[in-house]
Amino acid sequence: MNELSKKYLQEFKLYIEVEKNFSKYTIAAYSSDILSFLIWLNNRKIEDVNYNLIHEYLLYIQQFNYTKTTTARKIASLRTFYRYLYREKIIETNPALGIHSPKKGKSLPEFLTESEIEQILNNIKMDSPAGYRNRTILELLYATGMRISELSGLNFENLNLEENEIRVFGKGAKERIVLVSERAKNFLKTYIEKVRYLIYKKSGQYPSDPVFINKTGYRLQPQSVRIAIREVVNKINLPKHVTPHVFRHSFATKLLENGADLRVVQELLGHSSISNTQIYTHVSTERLRQSYNIAHPRAN
Fold first, then answer.
1. Annotated active-site residue in 185, 248, 249, 254
2. Which domain holds residue 31?
3. Number of domains in the chain
4. Which of 45, 66, 80, 219 sits most deeply, having the most CB atoms within 10 A of its CB?
5. What is the mean predicted confidence (pLDDT) over 122-135?
Protein backbone atom coordinates (compact mmCIF):
# COMPACT_ATOMS: atom_id res chain seq x y z
CA MET A 1 0.00 0.00 0.00
CA ASN A 2 1.47 3.34 -1.01
CA GLU A 3 1.72 6.45 1.17
CA LEU A 4 -1.03 8.28 -0.69
CA SER A 5 -3.46 5.44 -0.01
CA LYS A 6 -2.59 5.62 3.69
CA LYS A 7 -3.35 9.34 3.62
CA TYR A 8 -6.73 8.80 1.95
CA LEU A 9 -7.61 6.12 4.49
CA GLN A 10 -6.88 8.43 7.44
CA GLU A 11 -8.92 11.23 5.89
CA PHE A 12 -11.80 8.84 5.18
CA LYS A 13 -11.74 7.63 8.78
CA LEU A 14 -11.97 11.24 10.00
CA TYR A 15 -14.85 11.87 7.58
CA ILE A 16 -17.02 8.98 8.83
CA GLU A 17 -16.19 9.84 12.43
CA VAL A 18 -16.80 13.61 12.36
CA GLU A 19 -19.15 14.32 9.45
CA LYS A 20 -21.09 11.06 9.25
CA ASN A 21 -21.02 10.50 13.03
CA PHE A 22 -20.83 6.73 12.63
CA SER A 23 -20.54 4.63 15.76
CA LYS A 24 -17.06 3.61 16.88
CA TYR A 25 -17.87 0.02 15.88
CA THR A 26 -18.86 1.05 12.34
CA ILE A 27 -15.79 3.28 12.06
CA ALA A 28 -13.53 0.38 13.07
CA ALA A 29 -15.27 -2.03 10.66
CA TYR A 30 -15.26 0.34 7.67
CA SER A 31 -11.63 1.33 8.29
CA SER A 32 -10.61 -2.33 8.46
CA ASP A 33 -12.55 -3.11 5.27
CA ILE A 34 -10.89 -0.31 3.33
CA LEU A 35 -7.46 -1.18 4.71
CA SER A 36 -7.88 -4.75 3.43
CA PHE A 37 -8.93 -3.41 0.03
CA LEU A 38 -5.95 -1.05 -0.18
CA ILE A 39 -3.55 -3.82 0.80
CA TRP A 40 -5.04 -5.94 -1.97
CA LEU A 41 -4.53 -3.06 -4.41
CA ASN A 42 -0.86 -3.07 -3.43
CA ASN A 43 0.84 -0.19 -5.25
CA ARG A 44 -1.97 0.49 -7.68
CA LYS A 45 -3.32 4.01 -7.43
CA ILE A 46 -6.78 4.61 -6.00
CA GLU A 47 -7.44 7.01 -8.89
CA ASP A 48 -6.91 4.18 -11.39
CA VAL A 49 -9.46 1.82 -9.86
CA ASN A 50 -12.44 1.04 -12.10
CA TYR A 51 -15.58 -1.05 -11.83
CA ASN A 52 -13.86 -4.17 -13.16
CA LEU A 53 -11.12 -3.95 -10.55
CA ILE A 54 -13.61 -3.63 -7.71
CA HIS A 55 -15.53 -6.58 -9.15
CA GLU A 56 -12.26 -8.55 -9.22
CA TYR A 57 -11.70 -7.74 -5.55
CA LEU A 58 -15.20 -8.92 -4.64
CA LEU A 59 -14.52 -12.20 -6.43
CA TYR A 60 -11.25 -12.47 -4.49
CA ILE A 61 -12.90 -12.15 -1.06
CA GLN A 62 -15.42 -14.89 -1.87
CA GLN A 63 -12.76 -17.44 -0.97
CA PHE A 64 -13.07 -16.40 2.68
CA ASN A 65 -16.72 -17.51 2.84
CA TYR A 66 -17.95 -14.40 4.60
CA THR A 67 -21.60 -14.27 5.62
CA LYS A 68 -23.95 -12.22 3.46
CA THR A 69 -24.09 -9.62 6.22
CA THR A 70 -20.30 -9.21 6.33
CA THR A 71 -20.04 -9.11 2.52
CA ALA A 72 -22.79 -6.49 2.39
CA ARG A 73 -20.89 -4.38 4.93
CA LYS A 74 -17.65 -4.64 2.96
CA ILE A 75 -19.46 -3.47 -0.16
CA ALA A 76 -21.07 -0.63 1.82
CA SER A 77 -17.59 0.36 3.03
CA LEU A 78 -16.27 0.52 -0.55
CA ARG A 79 -19.28 2.49 -1.77
CA THR A 80 -18.94 5.00 1.09
CA PHE A 81 -15.18 5.28 0.52
CA TYR A 82 -15.48 6.00 -3.18
CA ARG A 83 -18.43 8.32 -2.68
CA TYR A 84 -16.18 10.29 -0.33
CA LEU A 85 -13.29 10.33 -2.82
CA TYR A 86 -15.63 11.52 -5.57
CA ARG A 87 -17.06 14.25 -3.36
CA GLU A 88 -13.55 15.45 -2.56
CA LYS A 89 -12.73 15.45 -6.32
CA ILE A 90 -9.89 12.99 -5.75
CA ILE A 91 -11.40 10.83 -8.49
CA GLU A 92 -13.29 11.96 -11.60
CA THR A 93 -15.80 9.10 -11.70
CA ASN A 94 -17.13 6.78 -9.01
CA PRO A 95 -16.27 3.15 -9.93
CA ALA A 96 -18.42 1.73 -7.11
CA LEU A 97 -21.72 3.11 -8.41
CA GLY A 98 -22.78 -0.15 -10.04
CA ILE A 99 -21.80 -2.35 -7.12
CA HIS A 100 -24.77 -3.80 -5.21
CA SER A 101 -24.92 -5.63 -1.92
CA PRO A 102 -26.06 -9.28 -1.87
CA LYS A 103 -29.63 -9.82 -0.83
CA LYS A 104 -29.83 -10.84 2.80
CA GLY A 105 -32.37 -13.37 3.91
CA LYS A 106 -34.95 -11.87 6.23
CA SER A 107 -34.74 -13.09 9.79
CA LEU A 108 -37.21 -12.14 12.47
CA PRO A 109 -35.64 -10.16 15.32
CA GLU A 110 -35.32 -11.84 18.70
CA PHE A 111 -37.68 -10.41 21.31
CA LEU A 112 -38.79 -11.07 24.87
CA THR A 113 -42.27 -11.67 26.23
CA GLU A 114 -43.52 -9.51 29.08
CA SER A 115 -42.99 -12.35 31.57
CA GLU A 116 -39.40 -12.80 30.35
CA ILE A 117 -38.77 -9.06 30.68
CA GLU A 118 -40.09 -9.10 34.24
CA GLN A 119 -38.06 -12.21 35.05
CA ILE A 120 -34.87 -10.46 33.93
CA LEU A 121 -35.67 -7.20 35.71
CA ASN A 122 -36.68 -8.87 38.97
CA ASN A 123 -33.47 -10.88 39.09
CA ILE A 124 -31.15 -7.89 38.93
CA LYS A 125 -29.66 -7.41 42.37
CA MET A 126 -30.41 -3.87 43.54
CA ASP A 127 -28.50 -4.07 46.82
CA SER A 128 -25.67 -1.99 45.35
CA PRO A 129 -25.61 1.39 43.54
CA ALA A 130 -24.36 -0.29 40.34
CA GLY A 131 -27.17 -2.86 40.56
CA TYR A 132 -29.82 -0.15 40.88
CA ARG A 133 -28.23 1.71 37.96
CA ASN A 134 -28.37 -1.41 35.80
CA ARG A 135 -32.03 -2.02 36.68
CA THR A 136 -32.80 1.60 35.75
CA ILE A 137 -31.02 1.20 32.41
CA LEU A 138 -32.98 -1.93 31.45
CA GLU A 139 -36.25 -0.30 32.54
CA LEU A 140 -35.42 2.61 30.23
CA LEU A 141 -34.40 0.42 27.30
CA TYR A 142 -37.71 -1.44 27.41
CA ALA A 143 -39.81 1.66 28.06
CA THR A 144 -38.28 3.85 25.35
CA GLY A 145 -36.84 1.58 22.63
CA MET A 146 -33.53 3.48 22.75
CA ARG A 147 -30.38 1.98 21.34
CA ILE A 148 -27.80 1.25 24.03
CA SER A 149 -25.41 3.73 22.38
CA GLU A 150 -28.10 6.42 22.64
CA LEU A 151 -28.70 5.67 26.30
CA SER A 152 -24.97 5.62 27.06
CA GLY A 153 -24.66 9.04 25.40
CA LEU A 154 -27.34 10.72 27.52
CA ASN A 155 -26.44 13.91 29.38
CA PHE A 156 -28.60 15.69 31.94
CA GLU A 157 -29.47 18.38 29.40
CA ASN A 158 -31.28 15.68 27.36
CA LEU A 159 -33.79 14.92 30.11
CA ASN A 160 -37.22 16.50 30.36
CA LEU A 161 -38.79 14.28 32.97
CA GLU A 162 -41.59 16.74 33.78
CA GLU A 163 -42.95 15.96 30.33
CA ASN A 164 -41.80 12.31 30.39
CA GLU A 165 -39.49 12.99 27.45
CA ILE A 166 -35.84 12.32 26.62
CA ARG A 167 -33.99 13.84 23.67
CA VAL A 168 -31.64 11.37 22.03
CA PHE A 169 -29.22 11.47 19.11
CA GLY A 170 -29.36 8.39 16.92
CA LYS A 171 -27.50 7.23 13.86
CA GLY A 172 -26.10 10.07 11.77
CA ALA A 173 -26.62 12.46 14.71
CA LYS A 174 -30.38 12.50 14.01
CA GLU A 175 -32.26 13.98 16.93
CA ARG A 176 -35.57 12.63 18.18
CA ILE A 177 -37.74 12.59 21.29
CA VAL A 178 -38.55 9.33 23.07
CA LEU A 179 -41.28 8.95 25.66
CA VAL A 180 -40.76 7.54 29.14
CA SER A 181 -43.29 5.54 31.16
CA GLU A 182 -44.05 6.55 34.76
CA ARG A 183 -42.44 3.37 36.03
CA ALA A 184 -39.17 3.97 34.16
CA LYS A 185 -39.22 7.66 35.11
CA ASN A 186 -39.52 6.81 38.80
CA PHE A 187 -36.53 4.48 38.58
CA LEU A 188 -34.55 7.17 36.76
CA LYS A 189 -35.44 9.90 39.25
CA THR A 190 -34.45 7.71 42.20
CA TYR A 191 -31.19 6.81 40.48
CA ILE A 192 -30.38 10.48 39.83
CA GLU A 193 -31.42 11.80 43.24
CA LYS A 194 -30.22 9.01 45.55
CA VAL A 195 -28.02 6.47 43.79
CA ARG A 196 -25.80 8.11 41.18
CA TYR A 197 -23.72 9.96 43.77
CA LEU A 198 -23.01 6.68 45.56
CA ILE A 199 -21.38 5.22 42.43
CA TYR A 200 -18.78 7.97 42.31
CA LYS A 201 -18.67 10.37 45.24
CA LYS A 202 -17.38 13.37 43.29
CA SER A 203 -19.79 13.15 40.37
CA GLY A 204 -21.77 16.31 39.60
CA GLN A 205 -25.02 16.93 37.77
CA TYR A 206 -24.17 19.68 35.31
CA PRO A 207 -26.08 19.78 32.01
CA SER A 208 -23.20 18.28 30.01
CA ASP A 209 -22.49 15.51 32.55
CA PRO A 210 -23.32 11.91 31.59
CA VAL A 211 -26.41 10.50 33.24
CA PHE A 212 -25.04 6.99 33.60
CA ILE A 213 -21.54 6.67 35.03
CA ASN A 214 -19.14 3.92 36.12
CA LYS A 215 -17.26 3.68 39.42
CA THR A 216 -14.54 6.04 38.13
CA GLY A 217 -17.06 8.76 37.31
CA TYR A 218 -16.78 8.41 33.53
CA ARG A 219 -19.59 7.70 31.09
CA LEU A 220 -20.83 4.11 31.33
CA GLN A 221 -20.00 2.19 28.13
CA PRO A 222 -22.44 -0.15 26.33
CA GLN A 223 -20.24 -3.18 26.99
CA SER A 224 -20.86 -2.86 30.74
CA VAL A 225 -24.61 -3.13 30.13
CA ARG A 226 -24.14 -6.18 27.89
CA ILE A 227 -22.15 -7.89 30.64
CA ALA A 228 -24.84 -7.11 33.25
CA ILE A 229 -27.55 -8.58 31.00
CA ARG A 230 -25.50 -11.68 30.25
CA GLU A 231 -24.97 -12.34 33.96
CA VAL A 232 -28.66 -12.21 34.86
CA VAL A 233 -29.74 -14.22 31.77
CA ASN A 234 -27.25 -16.96 32.67
CA LYS A 235 -28.47 -16.87 36.26
CA ILE A 236 -32.10 -17.56 35.32
CA ASN A 237 -31.19 -19.95 32.48
CA LEU A 238 -33.24 -18.06 29.92
CA PRO A 239 -32.86 -19.96 26.61
CA LYS A 240 -32.45 -16.83 24.49
CA HIS A 241 -29.54 -14.71 23.37
CA VAL A 242 -30.42 -11.44 25.08
CA THR A 243 -28.65 -8.18 24.24
CA PRO A 244 -29.59 -4.53 24.84
CA HIS A 245 -30.96 -4.47 21.28
CA VAL A 246 -33.38 -7.28 22.13
CA PHE A 247 -35.05 -4.86 24.57
CA ARG A 248 -35.51 -2.46 21.64
CA HIS A 249 -37.04 -5.25 19.55
CA SER A 250 -39.33 -6.17 22.43
CA PHE A 251 -40.45 -2.54 22.82
CA ALA A 252 -41.41 -2.27 19.14
CA THR A 253 -43.12 -5.66 19.04
CA LYS A 254 -45.23 -4.91 22.12
CA LEU A 255 -46.36 -1.53 20.73
CA LEU A 256 -47.53 -3.08 17.45
CA GLU A 257 -49.23 -5.98 19.22
CA ASN A 258 -51.24 -3.45 21.21
CA GLY A 259 -52.35 -1.55 18.13
CA ALA A 260 -49.81 1.26 17.78
CA ASP A 261 -49.57 2.87 14.36
CA LEU A 262 -46.54 1.74 12.34
CA ARG A 263 -45.53 5.34 11.64
CA VAL A 264 -45.57 6.16 15.35
CA VAL A 265 -43.31 3.19 16.07
CA GLN A 266 -41.01 4.28 13.25
CA GLU A 267 -40.73 7.74 14.81
CA LEU A 268 -40.07 6.40 18.30
CA LEU A 269 -37.37 4.04 17.03
CA GLY A 270 -35.74 6.69 14.85
CA HIS A 271 -35.89 4.59 11.68
CA SER A 272 -35.23 6.60 8.52
CA SER A 273 -37.28 4.16 6.43
CA ILE A 274 -40.63 2.55 7.23
CA SER A 275 -39.32 -0.71 5.75
CA ASN A 276 -36.98 -1.06 8.73
CA THR A 277 -39.97 -0.90 11.07
CA GLN A 278 -42.15 -3.29 9.08
CA ILE A 279 -40.11 -6.30 10.20
CA TYR A 280 -41.89 -6.05 13.55
CA THR A 281 -45.27 -6.55 11.89
CA HIS A 282 -43.99 -9.96 10.75
CA VAL A 283 -43.07 -10.75 14.35
CA SER A 284 -46.56 -9.82 15.53
CA THR A 285 -48.19 -11.86 12.74
CA GLU A 286 -46.08 -14.89 13.58
CA ARG A 287 -47.11 -14.69 17.23
CA LEU A 288 -50.76 -14.44 16.20
CA ARG A 289 -50.33 -17.53 14.03
CA GLN A 290 -48.78 -19.47 16.90
CA SER A 291 -51.58 -18.47 19.25
CA TYR A 292 -54.16 -19.47 16.62
CA ASN A 293 -52.58 -22.88 16.07
CA ILE A 294 -52.57 -23.56 19.82
CA ALA A 295 -56.03 -22.21 20.64
CA HIS A 296 -58.25 -23.06 17.66
CA PRO A 297 -59.73 -26.59 17.73
CA ARG A 298 -59.45 -26.97 13.94
CA ALA A 299 -56.20 -25.11 13.34
CA ASN A 300 -54.40 -28.30 12.33
1. 248
2. 3-87
3. 2
4. 80
5. 94
Distance CA 129, CA 265 (A): 33
* 95 located within any domain: no
* Position 107 in a domain: no
Q: Are residues 176 and 59 in the same domain?
A: no
Which residue in the list 73, 171, 226, 287 is annotated as catalytic?
A: 171
Tell me the CATH number at 120.
1.10.443.10
Question: Does 280 qualify as catalytic in the annotation?
Answer: yes
Is 8 an active-site residue?
no
CB 24 within 8 A of CB 153: no
d(CA 226, CA 223): 5
The answer to whether 73 is a known catalytic residue is: no
As a whole number, the mean pLDDT across the chain is: 88
Is 248 marked active-site? Answer: yes
Structural domain contains residue 146: yes
pLDDT in tens, 105-119: 556 678 899 999 999
The answer on 63 and 122 residing in a single domain is no
**Nearest one of 69, 1, 84, 79 to 35, comparing CA atoms:** 1
CA distance 180 to 137: 12
pLDDT confidence tier of residue 80, bands split at 50, 70 and 90: very high
- Residue type (1 letter), 234: N
Cα separations in angstroms, 141 against 5, 54, 249, 269, 286:
42, 41, 10, 11, 24
142 domain residue, yes or no: yes
Q: How confident is the model at residue 174 (pLDDT cuts 50, 70, 90)?
A: confident
249 is catalytic: no
